[in-house]
From TrEMBL:
Keyword field: Calcium, Cell adhesion, Disulfide bond, Extracellular matrix, Glycoprotein, Immunity, Innate immunity, Metal-binding, Secreted, Signal
GO terms, biological process: cell adhesion; cellular response to lipopolysaccharide; defense response to fungus; defense response to virus; induction of bacterial agglutination; innate immune response; mast cell mediated immunity; opsonization
Species for this entry: Cricetulus griseus
Locations listed in the record: Secreted, Extracellular space, Extracellular matrix
Protein known as: Spondin-2
Transmembrane annotation, as ranges: none
Domain of life from the UniProt record: Eukaryota
Quaternary structure and interacting proteins, as annotated: Monomer. Interacts with integrin.
Molecular function, one GO term: metal ion binding
The keyword Thylakoid appears for this protein: no
A cellular-component GO term for this protein: extracellular matrix
Record-linked InterPro entries: Spondin/Thrombospondin_T1 (IPR051418), Spondin_N (IPR009465), Spondin_N_sf (IPR038678), TSP1_rpt (IPR000884), TSP1_rpt_sf (IPR036383), TSP1_spondin_dom (IPR044004)
Length: 330
């Protein structure tokens, strides 16, 4: 009887140890466990689609022209997040979103990897010197670190960026072969500028990360404010492709930087976003002039604040005249 009890006790103890061991390897929040083969390598290709045709309002042409910062990302587990919508960004991400400085963000990622064992690898890709162009990198993921996050700063901008938050490249027992996602602008919540070239204007108190849409922020001065659109066209795209060959055999897509300046010429896929004319308020009426005993004329003017583009609403008359009684008749 004692031997039976002892055997049952050992079996129960082994069962508990097994359960505890498996629990420590599971993601937080009751998420599915990745059971794919140990490691997988992916190419990541970031494609900028920020063209003057798709985003004509206040499109930056110089000092500096429209471009993208370097890409910075990490492969991690569910107990780490680089950024998250409706949450506050870290100091490191604030520096990256506002000024493109990556040092503090990289130190935060490194600290998370050392303390929590939540980051498997860090990856980066070169900057794109124009609004439309590509940049590529490679990354490695692990069953316990199958999530991928990255950020790319919109240049110039107050604190705007695009990116991915915790994309899972594992699906049950297999690695995904390819993932393609459209990207849209986000506000880091640390600077209150409305336009691409706004001067520094710190948001106090700090706000959370929000997606910028065609109607939010709902201020006509905002560079992404297009009230006629239900939604903005994607400003960028990211493609993950699982690599079968060895890492050394991988060759990133040829960008032909010398002849084309990293530009993507694909007019069929570029949406034409209509930009309506915007005019100022009317000026005050001028003096009423004319001969004595007869009606005179006065006028007022307004000026064009935004020129129409892509079949947007044309500008109205910029001068208006009206009859009046002369102030100083001759």
């Amino acid at each position: 009887m004692e031997n039976v009890s002892f055997s049952l006790g050992r079996a129960l103890w082994a069962f508990l140890l097994a359960m505890l061991g498996s629990a420590t390897g599971q993601p937080l929040g009751g998420e599915s466990v990745c059971t794919a083969r140990p490691l997988a390598r992916y190419s990541i290709t970031f494609t900028g689609k920020w063209s003057q045709t798709a985003f004509p309002k206040q499109y930056p042409l110089f000092r500096p022209p429209a471009q993208w910062s370097s890409l910075l990302g990490a492969a991690h587990s569910s107990d780490y997040n680089m950024w998250r919508k409706n949450e506050y960004v870290s100091n490191g991400l604030r520096d990256f979103a506002e000024r493109g400085e990556a040092w503090a963000l990289m130190k935060e990622i490194e600290a998370a990897g050392e303390k929590l064992q939540s980051v498997h690898a860090v990856f980066s890709a070169p900057a794109v010197p124009s609004g439309t162009g590509q940049t590529s990198a490679e990354l490695e993921v692990h069953p316990r670190h199958s999530l991928v996050s990255f950020v790319v700063r919109i240049v110039p901008s107050p604190d705007w960026f695009v990116g991915i938050d915790s994309l899972d490249l594992c699906e049950g027992g297999r690695w995904k072969e390819q993932v393609v996602l459209d990207l849209y602008p986000h506000d880091a919540g640390t600077d209150s500028g409305f336009t691409f070239s706004s001067p520094n204007f710190a948001t106090i108190p700090q706000d959370t990360v929000t997606e910028i849409t065609s109607s939010s922020p709902s201020h006509p001065a905002n560079s992404f404010y297009y009230p006629r659109l239900k939604s903005l066209p994607p400003i960028a795209k990211v493609t993950f492709v699982r690599l079968r060959q060895s890492p050394r055999a991988f060759a990133p897509p040829s960008l032909d930087l010398a002849s084309r300046g990293n530009e993507i010429v694909d007019s069929l896929s570029v949406p034409e976003t209509p930009l309506d004319c915007e005019v100022s308020l009317w000026s005050s009426w001028g003096l009423c002039g004319g001969p004595c005993g007869k009606l005179g004329a006065k006028s007022r003017t307004r000026y064009v604040r935004v020129q129409p583009a892509n079949n947007g609403t044309p500008c109205p008359e910029l001068e208006e005249k009206a009859e009046c009684a002369p102030d100083n008749c001759v």
